[in-house]
Structure formats: C-alpha cells, structure tokens
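Q: What does the assembly look like in three dimensions?
Context provided by user:
Components: two
Sequences:
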Amino acid sequence: MPSYKAPIENVRFILNEVFDVSEIAKLPGYEDATPDVIDAVLEGMAQFCEEVIQPLNLSGDAEGCKYENGVVRTPKGFKEAYDQYVAGGWMGVTSNPAYGGQGLPHTVGSVLEEFVTSANMSFGMYPGLSTGAIRAIEHWAPEHLKQTYLHKMVAGTWSGTMCLTEAHCGTDLGLIRTKASAADSDGSHKITGSKIFISAGEQDLTENIIHLVLAKLPDAPPGVKGISLFIVPKFLPKEDGSVGPRNGVMCGSIEHKMGIKASATCVMNFDEAKGWLIGEPHKGMRAMFTMMNAARFGVAMQGLGIAEVSYQNAVAYAKDRIQGRALTGAKEKDKPADPIIVHPDVRKNLLTMKAFTEAARALSVWVGMQLDVIEKHPDPKVRQEADDLLALMTPILKAYFSDMGSEVANLGVQIYGGHGYIHEWGMEQFVRDARIAQIYEGANGIQALDLVGRKLPQNMGRPLRRFFHPASQFIEAEMENPALAEFMPHFAKAFGKLQQATAIIAQKGMSNPDEAAAASTDYLRMFALVAMAFMWLKMVKVAVAKLPDANGRASFYDGKIKTARFFFQKMLPETETRFRTIMAGSKSLMDLDMEQF
Amino acid sequence: MPSYKAPIENVRFILNEVFDVSEIAKLPGYEDATPDVIDAVLEGMAQFCEEVIQPLNLSGDAEGCKYENGVVRTPKGFKEAYDQYVAGGWMGVTSNPAYGGQGLPHTVGSVLEEFVTSANMSFGMYPGLSTGAIRAIEHWAPEHLKQTYLHKMVAGTWSGTMCLTEAHCGTDLGLIRTKASAADSDGSHKITGSKIFISAGEQDLTENIIHLVLAKLPDAPPGVKGISLFIVPKFLPKEDGSVGPRNGVMCGSIEHKMGIKASATCVMNFDEAKGWLIGEPHKGMRAMFTMMNAARFGVAMQGLGIAEVSYQNAVAYAKDRIQGRALTGAKEKDKPADPIIVHPDVRKNLLTMKAFTEAARALSVWVGMQLDVIEKHPDPKVRQEADDLLALMTPILKAYFSDMGSEVANLGVQIYGGHGYIHEWGMEQFVRDARIAQIYEGANGIQALDLVGRKLPQNMGRPLRRFFHPASQFIEAEMENPALAEFMPHFAKAFGKLQQATAIIAQKGMSNPDEAAAASTDYLRMFALVAMAFMWLKMVKVAVAKLPDANGRASFYDGKIKTARFFFQKMLPETETRFRTIMAGSKSLMDLDMEQF
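A: Here is the predicted structure of the complete assembly.
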C-alpha cells in the first residue's frame, strides 16, 4: 500500500522563501494569518491526511460507493473520517468568519487541497464541491438564503454540489432542458429535470445536501443567455435551521467509473423540487463561473496532489527495489543487485516527476495568492491585476497540471514495473483517479480554447501582460547574473518563442478562428512550460543565495539547482516542438472530409 | 458499448499495395498462401472477432476472472468463445503443418493478432501465450517432447505459458530461485519454486496447460548463465496422448489488476513438479528469447490493436455527439448544435490516433514479413538481413506501439469527455488494458536499453544498416519526386538528425555507458518517428500513383495523403525536441545524490 508524507519542507520553501506569504497576511482581514498560525494549520492538515484519510484510499477504491433505492453509501471509514474533518473545523478554513469560517488565505487553502488529494482524492471531492457551492452562495445569494445555508455548509454538517451537466450536454450548457417554473407565492420555483455526473450528489456524510442547479425559467431566451441558477436543498430547512421535509430531488443511480470510485457520481432527478433563484434571472452562467473558476483551480491542485504522492512512492520503490547492476559497475557490491535508482532512465522518470511537482507547487502558490489579493487588497488597480493574472493562468494550470498529474502517475506505475499494474500496490489507482481531472470542470481542450479564444484577446491583451511583464523584467534584471548564466539564455529564448507564437495566433486567429483553435493545446502547453521555467528560476535564485550559509540544508538547496538543470535540459526543450506545430497551422486538421476519418 | 469493425480495407492496402505479400507467398512452404486464401483468413478472423469475442469484452472486464482453491474461472462466454476459436482452427494458423498447423505466413498472423486485441485483448492473451510456447518447444525441445505436446497445443486443446518472473525479480532473471533437481532415471527433473505474473497460468478453457519454466539446476553457475528451461505440464500426458495424473503445479492466487481483467494473471507454485529440460542446460535464456522476441512483437500488435478500436469509436462519437458550434459558423444549422468533429482540436486528437494507427500497421507488416523471410528464405544472406532488421526493430515496435496504444486510448477517452470515464462506454477499459503493454515482456525502458546497448553496437552496427540503407536509398531516389516534394526535405532532415544522434550515442556510450542509457528512451522514440515517416512516404507514393484512376477509391487515397501531411506537420516535429534532449547528455540525471530525490 502506498504511503504519504505531506511535503511540508517544500511547501515552506515556496511560501516563505520563494514567495512571501507574510505579504498576504498584511492584507486587511488576514491579520491572524501569521506564519505560526499557517504552520500550525499545515501541520494539522498534514496529520489528518496522513493518519485519517490516506489509510482509507486503497480500501475506498476497492469498495467504491454503493447505491440502493436512492441512498448512497460511501466506503467504510469515510463517515468517521468526514466527522473528524468537520470536528477539526477543516471545512471552514478559508471561509468567511461571518458564517463561522476561519478566514485564512486561499493561498493556504490551496496547499491543503494538494495534501487532501495526495492522501485521498475521492474523499477530497466531498468538501471540495462544498467549497465551490459556499463561494457561489456567498457571492450571489440574497442575505436570507446566506443565513439559512452558509453556517451549516461552512461547518460541514451540510454539503453542496454543482448540478450543471445533462446527458446530452456538458460543454454546451446552452442545450440544457431542466426547467424552473415561474416563482410561487413564497418566492420559490419548481425545478424539474435530470442532471448527470453530479459529484457528491448523494452521500451518507452530511445531514443535508444543497444543490446549485442550472435551469431555464419559462421566459428564458434560448441558449446560454437563458440559464438561471437555483439553490435546491435535499431537505427543506425549517425556520429554526434544522432539517425539514424531503424536497423533490432524488439520486437515480451512481456511475461506475474508471477511478475516484469512493466519490459518488450521481444522476440527480428533480421532480418539482423547490428551488430559490440566486443571482439574476437568466444570468446563472455568470454565477456558475464563480464556482467554476475556483473549481478549475482546485482541479489543478488535484493534478499536483496525485503527482506528489506518486512521486514519493516511486522514489521509495526505486531506492528499495534491487534488480540488475549499474551500467558503470556495481554500486552495492554486498547485495545481489543494485537498487534501480542507479539507472539513468529511472532517474529521468523520477526527475520528470520531481521537476514538475516542485515547480507546479510554486506556480500554484503564485497564482493562488492572487485569489487573496482579489478579495482583500484595498487598491482596485492591484485587485484588477491579480484578477487578470488569475484569469490568464487558470486554464493553463487546470489543463497542464491535470495532464501532468496523469503523466506523472503513469511514470510512477512504470517505475514499479509489473507491480505497478496490481491494485494492492496502489500506483495504478493514481492513474485512474488522476484521469478525471483532465476531463471535468471543462475538458482540457476547452481550457485551451478559453486561453486562446477568451483570455488572450480579453481587454486588448491585458491579462497576458500580467505574465509577460514580470517574465520580461526578470530577464532584464537577471540576464547577466552569473549564478543563473546556464539557464537565462534558454529561458529568454523559450519566452521569445512564446511571445512570437502569441502574436501569430492573435493575428491569424482574427481572420480565421480555426487557426487559433488549432494551435490552442500546443500553445497552452508551451505557455505552461515557460511558466514552469520561470518558477524554477525563482527557486534557483533563492537556492543560490542561501546555499553558502545553508549548513544542514545545503543538500536541499543544491537539489533544487540540480532539478532546475534537469528541467531546463530535458523538459523545457519541448517548447521547440510545440512552436513548430503551432506554426504549422490548421490546414492539415481541417482538410479531411468527414468520411476520410 | 464500443463497436469494432476489422479494418480490412486498410490491411489490404498495406499487404497488397504498399508491400507485396505475394512475394512472401513465393517463399518455399508458403505456396498455399495465395491472395485468395489470405483474404479468406482475414475475413474469417474479422467475423470471429466482431461477432464472437468483441461482445464479451466489456462484460469480461466487469466480471473478471475468479479464483477458488486453485481453480480459475474465466468470465461468462469465454469458454464457448475459445471452443469456437479452436474449432475454427485459428490456434494453428501460422503453426507448422507437421503438427497440424495451417502454416500461413507470420505476416498474416500478426494482422490477426491486431484484430483479436481490438476485439478483446484479454481473450487474446490465452492463445497469444500458447503461440510463444509452441514456438519455443518447436525450436528447442527434443523430438519426443514435440510429438507429445505440439499437436495438442497447435490444435488449441492444450495451452502454453511462460513462467519467468518471481516476486523479487522480473527484469533481472539472474536472481531467480526456482530450482530443478538433477535428472531422475526417467530423464525428468523436479521443479520447485514460485512464479508470479503468469498470464493464463491457470484457466478453464483447455484440458491441459503446458508451462515453460525457468529454473536452476544443482550445478548452475550464478546469474543468467545458470538458468535452464523446462517444460512442466499441469497434467502429465499418458502414453496415448491423453491427460494423466495431476503434476505438482498449482495456481496459488490471481492478481487484481488495472486492466485485462478477463486474462488470469497467476501466482504459480511448483512443488517437486515433473519437468523436462528443453534446450541445453544453463542456456535457458537463449531458448526463452525465442518466445520473448515473438512475444514482444505480439505486444507491439496489442498497442496497435487497442489504438485501432479506440480510434474507430472516437470517430463515431465525434461525428455523432452534437455540442456547441463550429468557430467559423454553424455547420449543421438544422440541428441544435454541430458534431464535435468540426473542432480543430478534436480533429487533431483524431488525426494523431489515425496517423499512428495506419503507419504502425505498415511498419508492423514490414517488420512482420522479416519473420517469414527468416524462416523460409533459401538465401542465408537474405535471412541474415531479415534477422538483423527484426532484431533492430523489435524493441522499437514493442515500446513505441505500446506507448502510443496508451496515448491513443487516452485520447479516445478525452474525446468522449465525461462519458469516457464511465465503464459502460468502454473507452476507459482500453486505457486500462493498454497500460500493461508498456510494462510486460520487458518494460519499455528495457526495450530502449536493448536498442542502444545491444542492437546498435551488434556486429559493428550491422542491424542498423537494415534500416539506414533503405531509408537513404529512398531519399536518394525520391528527393526530386515532385509528388513527394512537401515531405522529402522534412524526412531527410529528421533522418539526418537520427544518424547524427546514433553516431553521438555510439561514441559517448563507449566511454560511459550511462550516456547511452540516458539517451535511450528519447532515441527510441526518435527512431520510431522516423520509421513512421518512412512508412507514410511509402503510403503516399502509392496513393499518389493510384489517385488518377482511383474512381470510387479516390477519397481513400486522398485521405492517406492528407493524413501523411498531418503526420509530417504535427507529429514528426517531436524529433526536434528528442534530438535536443539526447544531446543534453546524462549529467543532469546522474548528478543528484540519493537523498536529493
């Protein structure tokens, strides 16, 4: 069975040395988020993940969720673990203190999301979905609904879901058929229709489940401009806040999935269920995007979380498994064979995992900090800039991290050889669990379209500048820094190619949108690699500065520099190919007739 | 549930137009393999695969194999399907007529392996393992053992296995602990030990199971030079050829695997089981490689087979699923949305699948033909050349095809979106089934080492010339061919880089073997891409020539040219990055200390 140790030393390095989380703590409302408090939260969550939910991961996968007559049973131990999660106050870590939350920065919250996924991705789905729902209700619901729902949801005794997809539409929500009646005298609407792929739509963990449901009002214009968002509780709350009669919503079945089997994926049937409008009529998509952006960032963290745990176990196995001899002569002569970590190709796989995971964590903290700036910074210009960077980077993180989560998990299986393919060793579960992250919350192809079609042109390229400016400035400031000499020319070159690709996509895409779309996935990947290189440079700069007086930590800093070297020599060159395939344009894709496929 | 139609038109194109299978039919012993016969065999197998085993694929995965007290039960329908397979004479298609086989060329046999995998990879494991065992027995066993076993095995009423791996050793077989006693008076040995990961080690399909087992004789030298190969039947054959008393071999349990769940993967315990030596004492590895090379080629065909079926279903879904609108304006205005195949990125995924599958089939036929030349050609020089090409290309096909099988299956899931993640749709099963092909019969990292460490230096680079010569000759002959003008410079450039990489690896690897090993996986992939480009050029050449008089087939040939264009513009450029990362050398991999991982 795999093991997991939360990577606290690496997290501290990113939060405190590469970035400065104490800057976030200076924002109004975050005064309590001192380094001590953050440290205690990290350690508390690490312990919960390592001791409570990680031991349930493999058994949860084997057992899965069970469905009978509308009732869903989560695997053995999940209810108890969830109760501990609630008792520890973990549900409300980043939520508004007005509703009982601890109001800690999202920067910290996203690190916790990584830990939870590493330990038990399926378990993490339950609080994860609630977080999105809480955010949407807080943002869009009228005060009386907030008062009714948020305290319970922040406490974790009630949970939340997002009900978007229907059997015939996922990406294209304009096609939804779920209907909402005109408002009744009490202000509620009757919701009727069927939703699929609803994570945590039904479960046995919480006393109530609060669904956020997209539906069409009677006077709705066609398409996405006619969608409204409703709050539909499983049980109707009574005046005193306790749970009242059952509402007209039932789980019809659960899916048999490739992975995250301990997370219930439900068909939810609404039959004249009472619902309350949140946000404006027909403007539900806007409200839904409040959830969606947070959810996309959360999915990125899932990719990182799976990569981290897969890496940890792959390293342990590679050091432990003896098989064959080093090509340059036996390394451990007293043993019948050497550990497989002596082999260059095994190291290449391990370093790919490590180089991704560490830079991705840095990138996620940089982007995650923007969430806090957006919410708390007094200066609207600074808030706008943070919002722009977040908008730009969200599709990149969602797609690249989830693609790499799968890639890294597969490398982990490969290092285990035949044992990697066997359930009991746990490595193949990471592959199956990770796979969904490339699909849900907007498949990765959609993320790439969002990047080239929406984020690049947005406000005349304003979001783009939030990455291009700091990258340019870094090049200008550090180009002659001898400590970075081996890296900077490669970074400048890759960044130059990214700028060139950006200009060409913008130009060609104007006359033919298929040109931008044809380039989109290659462009997103290229962008991500340049952003990762940027993070490695930031880490190297710190490591070089600290190394002379590092004493016991010298190996740690030295390891960062060596891993950066690997990234620049073995991973960044992928940008060359991506640039070439972007330049090749859309013609070879669009030329085939339907019947030639 | 997925569907499958054997790609007979594409197979005929490769067998008859791109290559000339009638040349193989001219080899002594293949006189009966006329185009008509081959066509009938292809169509018969297509029908069996489409109608008998494909419908059992999804249910076989859901049900899996069951183990109880040493007995293994295959999923519902497998026994009946296997009986039909035997009744149809399919087991013996390529086997020696002296033992009841049909003696058809291996070129045809490998196409059939593709079909079987597409329809039901798990099912294919049962006859697949037998094929390897038959080959090894025919090659190495003394005549009386051949007479005892081969007729039954070729008929399919008895099956075969390969028992190599033990819990503590897979790649490094020198570490095995299974023991063989000195020969008893009847010439048999007592075999004692435990083997794991034995595919088809126990099942309910055949009346006897013939294990080929690696074990160490009492006087064995240490390491791989002390391993002998034994034939160990589950039931000891009686004089009359019928099944006699149970031998001391038992299945101890079966594995719970990520995929190929309908294929029983067994722990096999040998307790003083009677076994007979085949091949020379202590030279079992050589005999084992007779099976292994065929098995590796078979694994390559599995990668292709999964890619083909995944592609077929992805295309069907992309044409059927309506969602959103084409970016350049609605394509099907009468429908609420356009099919997703209008989108450039969906087409890019489909074309990646298609461009791989079609060129891989061509490459497999080219390499597969060498198997027939090796066995039947009267000229030893020609046989040697065929053997060299096969030796060179086997690790490339095994690793690249199986890597791409997984990659393509994952693209198939992605095209289905959320439905791709659900068992009932069948696409995620392809991912899980395909994954093992990257691991077994030598993990792909081992294939890459075999390529750079063994095949490149072998006989002063002689095997290498069997690819480099025809590629050079093609460039010389076709460089000025206007019909290939858009492709040839790119091919020449990529081939030039491959030659350059080869020279540098050979040179650097001489002084430091870690240098060759560090480059190995990138080099294998680069080699594979160049070989695929070579196949596309051969196909384009035929298509261009036939197009003017093609009439009803014009779209078919035109589709080949367009797909080649996609390959050259979007897939071949990967060689650039691979060249760069090869050149970066081993230092960034080897520099990290153990504790820095």
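Follow-up: The radius of gyration of chain B is 24 Å.
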